[in-house]
Amino acid sequence: MKFKKLIFLALIGVLMLTLTACSDDDTTSFENNFPLHDMSEYDIEGDHRFYYVTMYEALQLRDDETFNGILYFGFPGCPWCQAAVPVMHEASQQTETDVFYVSRRHALREGEWNEWDEEMAWWLDEQIGLQWHDFTEQGGIYRPNIFVPQIVHLRNGVIVAEHRNTVDSHEVAEDEEGERYVPELTAEEWRELLEIYTGIFSGIHLCDLPSENCS
């Protein structure tokens, strides 16, 4: 009887390990390593789940086989980012998903590329294909560029989902004086983008196989 009891307890232990292997604790263990990002330049209210990471740290997360999370590339001066981030914020709250924010402000506007920007851009181009840009005026070359807003779901060093820009119908408009600007998202466009983001964000809480560790 004691032998059967020991076997039963052992089976319970294995079952508990299998169930906890895909727990949210694993997928959210990284936020303690990074500070919350200052989101005061965006139109979002209340607490948020955006964490600041440098490009070098983003590359470290790429190389970390235990990382399972969302990387967001953007900067406040980008009107497309201004439209996308509030929707991203809502999606992160709905799905309880942390977003690791990699700022692109200096690299895009001031041509201050460094070896980390270079490495990330070439790697993303290999993974998902990027638009190319002529950097010769900044003393560089024609090469892939990280146009924003760009999000990627990175798991175990592999991009399993990504989304760039907002939605297809969200296009540049012109005012009465012929000045071009990026309009606010319509209610329909907001819902479409929210569905895209929630679909991608929800993926970090899922396993491909019951026995797979999603961390």
Structural class: alpha/beta
Our measurement of the CA-to-CA distance between the termini, rounded to an integer number of angstroms, reads 38 Å
CATH superfamily: Glutaredoxin
Proportion in helices = 25-40%
CATH structural class: Alpha Beta
Task: Count every helix, treating DSSP H or I runs of 4 or more residues as helices.
Answer: 7
- Tell how many strands the DSSP assignment holds: 9
Shape: globular
The order of strands across the largest sheet is: 1-3-2-6-7
Structurally, the number of domains stands at 1
Low-confidence stretches: 2-28, 106-110, 208-215
Spell out the helices and strands N to C.
Answer: HHEHEHEHHEEEEEEH
**How much is the radius of gyration in Å?**
21 Å
**Into which percentage range does the β-strand content fall?**
15-25%
Q: Which terms summarize this structure?
A:
alpha/beta, Glutaredoxin, 5-stranded mixed sheet, two-stranded antiparallel sheet, 7 helices, globular, disordered C terminus
Characterize the structure shown.
By secondary structure, the chain is an alpha/beta fold. It contains 7 helices and 9 strands. The chain has one domain (24-205): Glutaredoxin, CATH 3.40.30. A 5-stranded mixed sheet has the order 1-3-2-6-7. Helix 3 (55-63) packs across helix 6 and helix 4 crosses helix 7 (187-202). Mean pLDDT is 80; it is low at 2-28, 106-110 and 208-215.
How would the blueprint of this fold be written?
Elements (H helix, E strand, L loop, with lengths): L1 H19 L3 H4 L22 E4 L1 H9 L4 E7 L4 H17 L3 E5 L1 H5 L5 H14 L3 E3 L7 E3 L5 E6 L2 E7 L8 E2 L5 E2 L5 H16 L13
Parallel strand pairs: 1-3, 2-3
Antiparallel strand pairs: 2-6, 4-5, 6-7, 8-9
